[in-house]
Amino acid sequence: MSFSLRRGTAPLLVSMPHIGTEIPEDLRSQYIERALAVEDADWHLERLYGFADELGATVLQPRYSRYVIDLNRPPDDAAMYPGASNTELCPTRFFTGDALYVQGCEPGEAERGRRRELYWQPYHTALAAELQGLKDKHGFVVLWDAHSIRSQIPWLFEGVLPDLNIGTAGGTSAALQVEEAVTREAAAQEEASHIVNGRFKGGYITRHYGRPAERVHAVQLEMVQKLYMRESPPYDYDERRAADIQPLLKAMLVAAVLAARKLHGA
Predict the structure, then answer these.
(1) pLDDT, tens only, 132-152
(2) What one-character-per-residue DSSP string does 178-244 give?
(3) Is the dihedral of CA 11, 212, 136, 129 positive or negative?
(4) Which residues contact residue 165 at a Cβ distance below 8 angstroms, ignoring those fewer than 6 apart?
(5) pTM given for the model
(6) What are the beta bridge partners of residue 144?
(7) How many angstroms separate the Cα of 57 from the Cα of each of 15, 18, 215, 225, 240?
(8) pLDDT tens for each residue of 53-96
């Protein structure tokens, strides 16, 4: 199985599309040695969001690295952020802009199609089915797309990224009430900075599945990794920092669900 799924009891699904760290054995020789350390993973999010089970959330997470295929990119590989540096459906570069593959081993059209069918489609089939099931059961559902990233990556963005980057695809993937509820929680503290629909507005998952008119509200949170871990090798999890930020993350998820529940009278 290329992903794991834990079903919960609440109208909340937490997707973590970039936490995978495995590269299939038959592909490993195609990458340069550095790539096998999967430095651009969304490290330790499954641990950071360990409270999701307490909230009754359904949790979906992949095994394989985004270097194999990016589950948060559209199947046609259209750019998510026109005019900026973009990673591809089957990435060929690190976040530094350096090449991932041994020269001449980059995936061609047929290989990209194979990976799409083998890794991308099963994740999205499961995601769509769980969202539908939760909506049918509760009358609405909140999709929380969880991400993390180093705070400084010049190839992708200028300067230092805000700590908490809340994305609702420019206000189209979640009702305003949901977006505002999440933002109020972020604004109620001073330890972590935040921005709404800034450099990271939400990738394919947020944009494709977020349909507030159909009672599906999708929010992406791209948070900087220094809030809970070391951003450089060996990418250690920091228990103290994580414990400091977890109550806020939990409050943001709860606020999103409560706002959606109030909106839909469910």
Answers:
(1) 999 999 999 999 999 999 999
(2) HHHHHHHHHHT-SSS-EEESSS----HHHHHH-BGGGTEEEEEEEEEGGGTB-SSTT--B-HHHHHH
(3) negative
(4) 194, 195, 198, 199, 200, 220, 221, 222, 223
(5) 0.95
(6) 14, 219
(7) 10, 18, 17, 23, 24
(8) 999 999 999 999 999 999 999 998 776 666 555 678 999 999 99
Adjacency order of strands within the sheet including 58-62: 3-6, 58-62, 12-15, 141-149, 216-224, 164-167, 194-196
Q: Which helix (H) or strand (E) holds 13?
A: strand 12-15
Cβ distance 164 to 186 under 8 Å? yes
| Nearest in space to 18 (alpha carbons), one of 62, 81, 79, 53 | 62
How are beta strands 58-62 and 141-149 bridged, if at all? unpaired
What distance in Å separates the CA atoms of residue 36 and residue 239, rounded to the nearest whole number?
A: 26
Q: Is the pLDDT of residue 39 over 60?
A: yes
**Secondary-structure class of domain 3-19+41-62+109-264 per CATH:** alpha beta
| Residue 231 near residue 167 (C-beta atoms within 8 A) | no
Report whether 210 contacts 173 (CB < 8 A): yes
Q: Which tokens belong to 56?
A: 């009754």
Q: Domain segments of the chain: what residues? A: 3-19+41-62+109-264
- What is the structure's pLDDT at 265? 85
Q: Which residues pair with 217 in a beta bridge?
A: 142
